[in-house]
Design a protein that fits this description.
InterPro entries: MFS (IPR011701), MFS_dom (IPR020846), MFS_trans_sf (IPR036259), MFS_Transporters (IPR050171), Sugar_transporter_CS (IPR005829), Tet-R_TetA/multi-R_MdtG-like (IPR001958). This protein has 433 residues and is mainly alpha-helical. The protein folds into 2 domains: 181 residues, Growth Hormone, Chain: A (Up-down Bundle); 237 residues, Growth Hormone, Chain: A, CATH 1.20.1250.20. It is 77% helix and 0% strand. The longest helix is centred in the C-terminal third of the chain and has 30 residues.
């Protein structure tokens, strides 16, 4: 194991207070995730758009998220994480307030697209700030807590949104705007700028893989074979994963299940993530991240593959429980690996590019899954998705050694830079830290 992989028990007090303020701000944002889950319903039932038109708007929103994810990462490295995060949230608040106040499907669709252009920046920037704030040996735990905040908030938000939507869709936009504003105020008041100067020498000058450290621009990240291979493989995994919220309800509907059954599966997924994310994280922490992520995606393949034989709600609950366990072990590990593959000067760009893989999967996955479902049927869809997950697990296992070499070099430079920064601080500054 690398020094970042060496098992270490992370206590709550081992994570800096600033991290917990950032964690709270993210929890607030995810509690307020009202608009996106209800976007198609709002466009069709409240605005009067056709299903096809609503689909185009959602696709445009997704394109905006892809752009803002990448741009947010680049700007976080150039002008600072805190400025980009607060700016993204405040601009999102303005658009969210404006949408219920305008008339016309075209104008509302345009504003939703603009909202996507602002909204997608926050995720990669927060991941970047976690990498800045937390020393390498505690990052695995930090990203697990971070992922838990997302799932905890998302478990609460849609439930509240359902009640608000029954009264007025405008409430969804205004309540989400209010919570995003609270989050931005927390960041403004409690989270300082986390960007640190890049070390004068380190792995970025001689890292593993083409393009590693060949400058600090976005092109140097895209030329990094070690990272881009990892990102491309995780994109394929994300395409498989999004089938759980796109084609799964279609398959269940064809089998005669009411929509409430799919809602029960989403609830099961959220409850399991909230209850088991932290206990499983402590278990997974005994092994290297590469081993955990390979096994987790293998478990995902089992759960997805079993859906080919599922027809009853009970069987679907079993399959969802299985691939949820895989989800717990894959996403937080992948995000922390991304943080450890990046030097401090390009950490935002790395997280931005990694965030794009998830956004693109949200656009590609439903189309690919729908084509397979229409052409070959549900059984072929789930068996094919399971096979893809197995391929992903194998590719991650084969490429693990190159990632471990890079992480060792980057973490060593990061640790040295943090130690040098602490030595240069005055006693008063250290006391405040």
């Amino acid at each position: 194991m690398t020094s970042a992989e060496t098992p270490v028990h992370t206590r709550l007090r081992d994570l800096p207070a600033t991290f917990w303020w950032l964690w709270t701000a993210q929890l607030v944002v995810w509690i307020g995730r009202f608009v996106v889950p209800y976007m198609t319903i709002f466009l069709t039932s409240s605005i009067g758009m056709s299903a096809a038109g609503a689909g185009l708007v959602v696709a445009a929103y997704g394109v905006g998220v892809v752009v803002s994810s990448l741009l947010g990462g680049v700007l976080a490295d150039r002008i600072g994480r805190r400025k980009v995060l607060i700016g993204s949230e405040l601009l999102s608040v303005v658009v969210l307030i404006a949408i219920p106040m305008v008339d016309g499907a075209v104008l509302i669709a345009l504003l939703l697209t603009v909202y996507g252009l602002f909204n997608g920046a926050a995720g990669p920037v927060i991941h970047t700030m976690v990498g800045d704030l937390v020393e390498p040996r505690h990052r695995r735990a930090a990203f697990n807590y971070n992922y838990w905040a997302v799932n905890l908030g998302y478990a609460i938000g849609p439930l509240a949104a359902g009640f608000m939507a029954e009264h007025s869709f405008s409430l969804l936009f205004w309540c989400q705007a209010a919570l995003v504003l609270v989050s931005s105020c927390l960041v403004a008041a409690k989270v300082p700028e986390t960007r640190v100067p890049a070390p004068a020498a380190g792995p970025q000058a001689g890292g593993t893989g083409a393009g590693a450290g060949a400058g600090t621009g976005l092109v140097s990240v895209l030329k990094d074979r070690v990272f881009m291979t990892f990102a491309a493989v995780m994109f394929v995994y994300s395409v498989v994963y999004v089938q759980s919220t796109t084609t799964l309800p279609l398959v269940m509907t064809e089998q005669g299940h009411p929509s409430s059954h799919f809602g029960m599966l989403l609830t099961l997924n959220g409850v399991l993530l909230c209850l088991l994310q932290l206990p499983t994280a402590r278990l997974f922490h005994r092994w290297s991240r590469d081993l955990v992520i390979v096994v987790a995606i293998g478990i995902t393949a089992v759960g997805v593959g079993l859906q080919a034989a599922a027809s009853s709600l009970a069987m679907y609950m079993v399959t969802v429980a299985i691939w949820t366990l895989g989800e717990m072990g894959s996403h937080p590990q992948a995000t922390s690996i991304t943080a450890d593959l990046a030097d401090s000067a390009r950490r935002g760009r790395y997280q931005g590019v990694y965030g794009v893989t998830h956004s693109l999967a949200m656009a590609v996955g439903p189309v690919a899954g729908g084509l397979v479902l229409d052409t070959y049927g549900g059984r072929a869809l789930w068996l094919g998705a399971a096979a893809l997950a197995v391929v992903v697990a194998v590719l991650l296992a084969v490429t693990a050694r190159s990632r471990q070499r890079r992480v060792t070099a980057v973490v060593a430079a990061d640790t040295a830079a943090r130690a040098a920064a602490e030595q240069s601080q005055s006693p008063a500054e250290l006391a405040r830290t």
